[in-house]
UniProtKB/TrEMBL annotation:
Gene3D superfamilies: Luciferase-like domain (3.20.20.30). It comes from the Eukaryota. InterPro entries: Diverse_substr_monoxygenases (IPR051260), Luciferase-like_dom (IPR011251), Luciferase-like_sf (IPR036661), NTA_MOA (IPR016215). Signal peptide: none annotated. One of its GO terms (molecular function) is oxidoreductase activity, acting on paired donors, with incorporation or reduction of molecular oxygen. This is Luciferase-like domain-containing protein. It comes from Aspergillus nanangensis. Belongs to the NtaA/SnaA/DszA monooxygenase family.
Amino acid sequence: MGSVQQPKKQLILNAFAMQSPCHLNPGLHRYPNDQGANYKSLKHWVSLAQKLEAAKFHAIFFADVLGGYDVYKGPANLDPTIPAGAQFPINDPLYSIPAMAAATESIGFGVTASTTYDAPYALARRFSTVDHLSNGRVGWNIVTSYLDSAARNFGLNTQVEHDERYRIADEYLSVAYQLWEGSWRDGAVNTKENDRVAGYADPKAVRQINHEGKYFNVPGPHLCEPSLQRTPFLLQAGTSTAGKAFAAKHAEAIFLHGQKPELIRPSVDSVRQQAKDLGRDSAGIKVIAGMLVIVAETDEAAHAKFAQLAEYGDREGALALFGGWSGYDLSQYEDDQDFRFVEQPAIRSMVTHWASTVPGTEGQKWDKKTIAEYLRMGGNGAKVIGSAQTVADELERWVEVGDVDGFNLSYASVPETFDDIIQYLIPELQRRGLFHTDYAVKGGTFRENMYEVEGHRRLPASHPGAKYVWREGEKVPKYALDEAK
Ligand SMILES: Cc1cc2nc3c(=O)[nH]c(=O)nc-3n(C[C@H](O)[C@H](O)[C@H](O)COP(=O)(O)O)c2cc1C
């Protein structure tokens, strides 16, 4: 009896970028082919978006930070960061999205924005604006931020405590949902064809949300009329207990970084289980792993390419990134100090973890040089180097073992890393039936293309934000009636 061939899970592929000379590749702006320094140019981003859309990438995803990496050799010292172009200087990614959207039709745009430093009323307006201007192709990567330098510049002495940031974020999201879903009734805006004579929109279909909470008071109404998705597609990357609980409640896609699929699997299972416990469709949550892929014609050529690129990696910049991510200044340790054995428990546990998981480092001393060399390309994510066959095999293993749905592909050099992926890897993935040859919904919204269902523009019914929807025929949204009871 022949077994029935199950269709393979279709991978989600995003390009992982930042509007800075270097993202997870400190120093690579010095590599002759690198165009990272063109981050200020709309042409640079538009041409990248067009190239990625032609290759059918689901989205370009922009990371963002609101301060410099100034912990290493600090306090408040950017000297090691600036020459490396290590996520500094950095522009606000949101402004470039409408230009990229105007030059493309289906690719999505994920944009990072913080719930710690941005008022929900303003953020909701900005995302609605860009959702309108992109025909529903914007996603929000919700972050709570981690840099002390950001806190200082936003008028705080130090960061708001970690779990408190997530409590604020939770109320923030409820304000945003009320603005996006519950402030304008479905059908509130008249069209010329039906009833514009009656006015632009029905004033009875636009309401104040009158949110009064612990952290925010927002009367509303939402300044923007409803966009195609209303709530932008929601992405989140948190690895702590509070972060995972937040993701399980709010995220439609989660990002994870890890060396091996075996190691991220428990986090994936935990988020899916927590989402299920909240009544959400947990299988529908997209899990996307961060990864650097260096692919070439053969394994040898790919390794040679990686070695060539690595020469441009800036070790000081890499240690500066480590300082910002972890809050620890490694300059306070001797150069030959092996960090697997330091007293500081957070550093010791991080480095011991790397020592036992990073391929090719067995038996190696984990001193500053090793850490810097490890972090100079691809950050803390897995690095997969090889021919298209080797890389595709590894991606399949990640899907099977890690239960991931796709990958956020970072670059060692922009756009060269993507050019290689497009030339070598994507055809191989398509041959294996692992990657689509066209968008599920051409010209569709971010959400339609992530869920591969035409018409799936709004939050899924089981998402907690969906309870705020104000449906046609309702005098006020149901949630408001329930709250008034
Ligand atoms: C793959 C990945 C991408 C991230 N991108 C950003 C980012 O662009 N900006 C940011 O402020 N934080 C970013 N973060 C940090 C997380 O959003 C989160 O704030 C951080 O991991 C601390 O939360 P946690 O303690 O729950 O992990 C990222 C984390 C991961 C794993």
